[in-house]
Each structure stands twice: as C-alpha cells, then as structure tokens.
Design brief:
The structure holds two protein chains of two kinds. Chain A is of the alpha+beta class. Chain A is built from 13 helices and twelve strands. Chain B is elongated. The chains are: A alpha+beta, B alpha+beta.
Chain lengths: ~400, ~375
C-alpha cells in the first residue's frame, strides 16, 4: 500500500515537472477553467449580492401582516378596524411609553425618471405610522430633517436619490393635492427601503383618499413570539390575514429575480463547463499519447496501473484548480463590492467564500472528468505495443 | 478545391483530438445560439409592444373613476378606449395565482392579437359570468368550454364571500406569444355589480390612437385633463413601458456580450493550440510539400483552410444543436424569458464569428509553416 502511494507521488512528480514542456496544452485547461469559473461566479455574485441586500432588511423579530392571499403589499387591503385589532394582538413589543411598536402603512407610487437613461420608472412612497422609526431603528437621516405629520413632506432613501432625477433635498415631488417637499435624505443599512420615499402614514392615507391601509408591520417581543402573534390573528374571526416573518416575506418578494439570475448562471456555467471539459480531455489525451513510451517504460520497470491513473488524474486536477483560482480571483477583483441595480434595488455584488468554493469544486470535477478517460487509456496501453512502436 | 482531400486528411490525422476540439467549439456555439435566442426573445417582446397603444394608469396607484373613459375618448387622435380592472385571485392552490382581466368587448378591439371570433365575443357579452381563457391556462388547469371555475380572491362580494365563479365560454390564443400569455378575460359588469368596495373604478384604460407618431403628445393631452382632479393619470405607450420593463431586469445585452467574449477567447486559444500542435507534429510533411514545389502561400493556405474547415464544421454542429435544443429549453425557461429560435441574422453572425476564430487561431501555425526551412526540417528527421 505504502509502495503504491510512493509510486503515485513519484509518477505525479515526473508528470508535473514536464508541464513546462507542453505549456500550450496545459494552458488550455488552465484558461478554460479560469473563464468558466470567472463567468459563473460573476453572474452568481449578482444573485448573492441581491439576496444579501434583501436579507439585510429582514429581522426575525419583525412580522408583516397582509390581507389573505396577497402576494405583495400593493395588492393587500386592511381596514382601520383590522389595524386596531392587529395592534391589540399579544406578542407585540411595547415602547417605553407603553404603546405597541407597530406601523400601519399606506403606499403610493410616484412616477420618476431614471438619471442614467431617461426612462420612466416608479418608486414607492411609504407612509409609516408614528412608531415607524422605532420599528426600524436602522433608518438614519444623513441630511436634512424628518417629515412632519399632516404636512406634505417626505424623506428620500439615498439610493432612490442616486438613481432618479428630482429627489434632492428641497425638491418638490408631485403627488395628489399638490407638491410634497423633500425635507431629508436617509440611509437604512443598504436595504430595500433606501430605494423608497417615506412620509407620514395618515397624511399619505388622506392624500390618496384611501379607504384601507396596505400592510401592518409589528415588532415582536422576541423572535419566538411569532407563533403566538400569528395564531391570535389567524384564529380571529373578524380578520382574514396572512402573517409572515419579515425575512420570509422579503425572500418571497425577490424569489423571481434570484431564480432568474441563478438560472442564467447555471445554464451558462454548465454549457461553458462542458466545453472546458472537452478541452481538458483533449489536452490530457495528447499528454498521454506524448508520454506513451515513457509510461510503457515505467510500467515495464514495475510501476502499477493505479499509479499511472492517479498521476494523470492529479495533473489534470491541479491544472483545473490553478485555473479556478485564477478565475475566482479575477471575478473577485473585477466585481466584488461593485454597485448594481436590479429589481428596484441597489446592491453590492458579492463574491463570497461559498461561491469561490463552489467554483473551485466545479472546476475540480471538470478537471477529474477530463483526466479520467485519458488516465484509463494510459494505464491500459499494452506495454509491448507501445515500446515496439519505437 | 482539389486540395480538399489533403486538408480533410490533415484535419482527421488525430481523430480523438479533432473530435474533442470539434466538440468544445460546438458547445460554445450552442451557448451562442441560446444567448442569441434570449436576445431574440427580448427583441420580440419589444417589437410586439405597439406604439399606437397607450396605457392610461393612475399616477399614484389609487384607481380612476369609470367616467374618465368618455373624457379620454374625446381627446383628438384617440380612436378606441377600453377600460379594464384586474381581479387578483388563485385557483385551488394559493400558488396558482391569476389576474382576471375585467373589461368589455372594446378590449378585443385594442388587443387584436387575441384570437377570439365575433360570435365568441357576443357569447361572452351575453353571459355575465363568462370568461375567455388562454390555451396556456386551459391546458395547465384542464379547463374546457362550459366548465365552472371558482377563484379565491381578495375582493369581497355583497354576501361577504370572496369566491368568484366564472363560466368558460371560449379558449383563445395570443398570436404574439402562441401557447403562452396567461389571459383570463371576464366581464367588467360582473365584477363591478358584485363587489362592495371600489365600485365604478378602473385600474387602466387602454387607448388606441390613429397615428402612432403622436403617442407622446396625445398621452400628455390625456394627462392634462386629469392633472388637477382627485386621481391624476399617467399615460405611456406600450412600447415605452416595455422598454422600461426590460431595463428592469438589468442589462441583459451587456451580460450576453461579456459571456460571448469570454467564450470566444477560450475558443481562440483552444483551436489555436490544437492546430499549432498538429502543425508541429507534421513539420516533415509540410517540408516535403514545399520540396515538391508547393509555394509558401500554398502551404499557408492549407493550414488556414484546415482551421476554417474545423471551425465551420463545429459552428454548424453547434448552431444546429441549439436550434434543436431551444424548443426544449423554451418550456423549461418559460417562467423567466421568452426564448425564441434565433433569427437568420444571428446565425450569420455565428458563422462570421467562426470564421474570425478560425483565421486568428491559424495565424501563428500558418506563420510557422511558411517560415519552415525545407532543408533543416528534412535533415532533422
């Protein structure tokens, strides 16, 4: 057993030392794998960054209440009576003044123009309740002051301001019943709210002549209070609502874009990987045939078949891994931390260690596939034939 | 042409190696074909969106009063106005979400791409609870004409029930997206008489104009009429909405171009290396050809021809395969993108790319062969 291991080590060493003599062929594997890994990771860095930004918004101890069957907030409708019932439910954390930390929210859409290409877009104006900022302590003003209730005032998320025209401090935003003034700019830990406008809930409600609120978000006493809160609402005969933890709600909202990006990454990565595997097969077959005499000689002086197989496999694997390392670093240098806009959210691309691991694993598998068949052929090569051909 | 057998034999000198090179180039062209198909799908979505069809939407999200329809119709240049409201719901399982489009017969004048006959439109008009559904929905849920379809919704009826039941009177198709387009079209009258809240309100007016070039101007005129009312509007052509919508997914074109760039760099390297290796192994052969009187240009052409033949063969295989794969992938990806058969122009671009790769890849090997010194090469043997 030990002898066989020694054989593998020395044979592999011989193979690896000869790599400089066949630079071109070896580079085919390295460059192929580098490109596959770089492209796949670049695309996946989008969905990872997007999901990370989505997860930032969510807290396990916050829950959102929507009318039953509503897929998104705009489709949901909760009457004022419903809101009162929801705020009285058990499991909600109370502020120091004894009021429950909840926010009944009223939404409106505001038509805006994108700075980059002049195309039309919509941003959401979210009316938040008096406890809205206690509910979301991550929201911090970076310029100006807060909006005042009953005044036509609003504050703008910093990525909404960066992306769309006419949302600067002091700008007038046309809404029903006249223009609203931008009194402040806020940031919110890079989450989805940074792409929104915030104002007072009752003021938006009145301006929109709304008859119902869109959603209620509550702060739970602790994350474990969720079941208690949910059961209280879903068993209440006067309510027909869905209660979801905030992270789950946000994940469901971004499912489509995430699936879309992952699908592109796997289709493109899969097809490119197939091409790279053929390239690796090609290279390793040519390596094996160039070394036919050498291998036959080694077999003749007592090296085992397993050692031959292993040495070819290891060479292919190492070349593939070198390529993967280059590709992953390229993707990391080029994209990690870059800002990107999709799905109405501005987020940073993220090449995570998990993604790098995935890329290296993928390239390693392809390298092994590319080495396997040539390795078997090398081991099966009849010694006498190979040497006779000389 | 008479050298074709020579080129052909040169190409297949090492069968396995040529096959693997062919396969990896072909795979790259499969990817090229699929990406071109995605591009074609986006282009089709854009082309199918019309400039003479305007959408008047509520500017701030709250629905508009029904009476806007008559006022919009009086704007010069407007030929037909169709009001519509959506009823959101699901069939049996909350995962089967559906948007029921509630309108009247004017809707079909605005959407001629829906294949519905005049008698069917009349049938739908007469049956208050009637609905015309697309082929896609009908086959997904196994609906037939005459079926009763109950939908669970968010909209309450007078008796407090949130279930709305429809009778299917017609199964239609969308000529722009055959077999797709999740249409579920019902009578606005049924919705409006049944619901408790939001009576006589409309989510969207579809507006047909006679001169597509005047879309922006007519849109502004419509919006001006309601600028100071309780529910201001925002009017856009279907085309400009489609443009904004496609932008939303991110810059797909940039993505496909970047991927193709990477793929073709890889190809260049792969085919160049294969050829270089093969030429190196055949040094003596080429020297012999030269000794027999082949000119430098002739051997150079032989090498280039071999490269071109390899790349064109592989490109043909790859493009044909992607044409076969696209119909299969179409269904699998239907949730995400409209994947279409690539247009012939993309096919030509594919062959042009193959040619470029072939020429660039054969540059170095061809140069080597041309520089070959006959005496040295033959002596070394």
């Amino acid at each position: 057993m030990l002898g066989e291991f020694k054989q593998i080590v020395s044979l592999t060493g011989i193979g690896l030392r000869a790599i400089p003599q066949r630079k071109g062929a070896s580079l085919v594997i390295v460059i192929g794998m580098a490109l596959v890994v770089a492209v796949t990771l670049s695309i996946l860095s989008m969905s990872t960054g997007f999901m990370r930004s989505v997860r930032n918004t969510g807290r396990e101890d916050r829950a959102i209440v929507l009318s039953q069957g509503s897929q998104f907030e705009f489709a949901s409708a909760l009457s004022r009576d419903n809101v009162t019932t929801i705020c009285d439910a058990p499991g909600i954390r109370t502020a120091s003044d004894g009021k429950p930390i909840v926010s009944a929210e009223s939404l409106a859409t505001v038509a805006v123009v994108k700075k980059s290409d002049g195309l039309d877009a919509f941003v959401a104006l979210r009316g938040i309740g008096p406890q809205g900022l206690a509910l979301r302590p991550e929201i911090k003003l970076v310029a100006g002051r807060l909006f005042r209730p009953a005044k036509h005032e609003l504050i703008v998320g910093k990525s909404a301001r960066a992306q769309f025209a006419g949302l600067d401090l002091g700008s007038q935003v046309p809404l029903p019943q006249g223009d609203w003034t931008v009194t402040g700019i806020f940031e919110s830990n890079g989450d989805g709210h940074e792409s929104e406008l915030l104002a007072d809930s009752e003021t938006v409600f009145a301006a929109m002549r709304a008859s119902t609120f869109h959603s209620v978000t509550v702060m739970l006493e602790r994350a474990q209070s969720f079941e208690q809160f949910r059961t209280a609402l879903t068993t209440n005969p006067t309510l027909t609502v869905d209660v979801v933890r905030e992270p789950q709600y946000l994940a469901a909202q971004s499912e489509f874009l995430n699936d879309f990006l992952s699908m592109i990454a796997y289709v493109v990565g899969g097809i490119m990987g197939l091409g790279a595997a053929f390239g690796a097969l090609n290279t390793m077959y040519s390596v094996v045939s160039a070394r036919a005499i050498e291998i036959a000689t080694l077999r003749a002086i007592g090296f085992g078949g397993a050692a031959v197989v292993a040495s070819v496999l290891v060479e292919s694997l190492l070349l593939a891994l070198a390529g993967a390392a280059i590709g992953a670093s390229a993707a990391w240098i080029a994209f990690n931390g870059d800002l990107h806009v999709a799905g109405g959210l501005v987020f940073k691309l993220a090449v995570t260690p998990g993604l790098v691991g995935l890329g290296i694993g993928f390239a390693g598998t392809l390298g092994l596939i590319g080495g396997l068949f040539p390795a078997i052929r090398a081991a099966r090569l009849p010694v006498v034939t190979a040497l006779n051909n000389q | 042409m008479k050298y074709l057998p020579l080129v052909w034999n040169g190409l297949w000198r090492r069968r396995a190696q040529t096959l693997f090179t062919l396969a990896s180039i072909a795979v790259a062209f499969i990817l090229f074909g699929i990406l071109a198909g995605i591009d074609a799908g986006f282009a089709h979505t854009l082309a199918a969106s019309r400039m003479d069809r305007l959408f008047t939407d509520p500017r701030f999200g709250a629905p508009m009063p029904m009476s806007y329809g008559e006022q919009i119709a009086r704007v010069p240049g407007v030929s037909v106005v169709a009001p519509r409201s959506l009823l959101f719901g699901y069939f049996q399982d909350p995962k089967n979400t559906l948007g029921v489009l509630c309108s009247d017969r004017r809707f079909f004048a605005l959407r001629p791409e829906i294949s519905i006959s005049a008698p069917q439109i009349e049938l739908l008009r007469q049956m208050r609870t009637g609905a015309a559904v697309s082929v896609e929905l009908a086959s997904k849920f196994g609906w037939k004409v005459g079926d009763k379809v109950p939908l669970q919704t968010n909209t309450a009826q007078a008796d407090g029930s949130r279930v709305w039941t429809f009778d299917i009177v017609a199964i239609v198709d969308d000529l722009n997206y055959p077999g797709q387009g999740g249409w579920f079209i019902a009578n606005y009258q049924y919705l409006d008489e049944g619901r408790v809240d939001g009576k006589s309100t409309i989510d969207r007016f579809l507006v047909r104009i006679s001169d597509p070039r005047r879309g922006a101007q007519i849109g502004r005129e419509i919006d001006q009429r309601f600028a100071n009312s309780a529910a201001p509007t925002r009017t856009n052509s279907e085309r400009s909405q489609a443009q904004s919508g496609l932008q939303f997914i991110g810059d797909v074109n940039f993505l496909t171009d970047a991927v193709l760039g990477a793929v073709f760099f890889m190809l260049l390297f792969l085919s160049g290396n294969t050829l270089l290796q093969s030429v190196r192994e055949r040094t003596a052969e080429f020297a012999m050809l030269k000794a027999l009187g082949f000119s430098n240009v002739a051997v150079l052409s032989l090498v280039i021809a071999e490269s071109v033949l390899l790349c064109l063969l592989a490109a043909t295989a790859g493009l044909v395969m992607s044409e076969l794969l696209i119909p299969i992938a179409h269904d699998a990806l239907a949730n995400f993108v409209v994947l279409l058969q690539m247009p012939w122009r993309a096919m030509l671009r594919g062959f042009a790319l193959a040619l470029i790769v072939a020429l660039l890849g054969s540059l170095l090997p061809a140069w080597r062969v041309m520089q070959l010194n006959v005496v040295n090469a033959l002596v070394r043997r």
